[in-house]
Design brief:
The protein is of the alpha/beta class. Helix content is 35%, strand content 22%. It has a seven-stranded mixed β-sheet, with helices on both faces. β3 and β4 form a beta hairpin. The radius of gyration is 16 Å and the shape is globular.
């Protein structure tokens, strides 16, 4: 079993850990299921990442230390968070400074709501990932809400765009796709 600990919430990149450990960030729209995915992956009886009915509660970079060797970093969600323009600008600045200035960034897990596919904020992030050129995994969340036929069609569509080894059909409710996410994380960390 993997040892997972909440490490810290960082509101400015100067507060990020100085360990030099590799980091895999988790990106996605508000309410796409980032916290639910973290809780599903870590199989904790008490939730490790806080979930909320109100989108946009994550206002920091949340660091989770795994096996004392690497971090999962939960980025603030983008999209329809009910925050002021200045708060939105601060969140964008924090995320941009992380993505563009963190040498320890080893991989990105990009979450996309399977019921809608990529929408406006997602496409901006997908473009950034494309330009970055590093390791990326595209996780389609809430797939338990789709029929098996719809899931298969989505997998075929995005297989062409991202490659079969880089997409996961995931459900935090059933655990579907969790093993494939872990497998990708381990391969990414080994390459660091």
């Amino acid at each position: 079993m993997i040892d997972v600990q909440f490490h810290s919430s960082v509101f400015n990149l100067k507060g990020a850990p100085k360990t030099g450990f590799p980091e895999i960030c988790i990106s996605g729209r508000s309410n796409v299921g980032k916290s639910s995915m973290i809780n599903c992956l870590t199989k904790r009886k008490r939730s490790l990442a806080k979930t909320s009915q109100t989108p946009g509660k994550t206002r920091s970079l949340n660091y989770f230390l795994l096996d004392g060797k690497y971090y999962l970093v939960d980025l603030p969600g983008y999209g329809y968070a009910k925050v002021s323009k200045s708060q939105r600008a601060d969140l964008r600045s924090l995320t941009d400074s992380y993505l563009n200035g963190r040498d320890e960034l080893t991989g990105i897990i990009q979450l996309i709501d399977s019921r809608h596919g990529p929408v406006s904020g997602d496409t901006i992030m997908l473009d950034w990932i494309n330009q970055w050129g590093g390791n990326a995994l595209y996780v389609f969340t809430k797939t338990d809400k789709l029929s098996a036929r719809s899931r298969a069609a989505m997998e075929r569509t995005y297989n062409k765009e991202f490659g079969l080894e880089n997409i996961v059909m995931f459900s935090a409710n059933t655990g579907m796709g969790a093993e494939k996410i872990w497998s990708w994380i381990h391969k990414t960390i080994v390459k660091y």
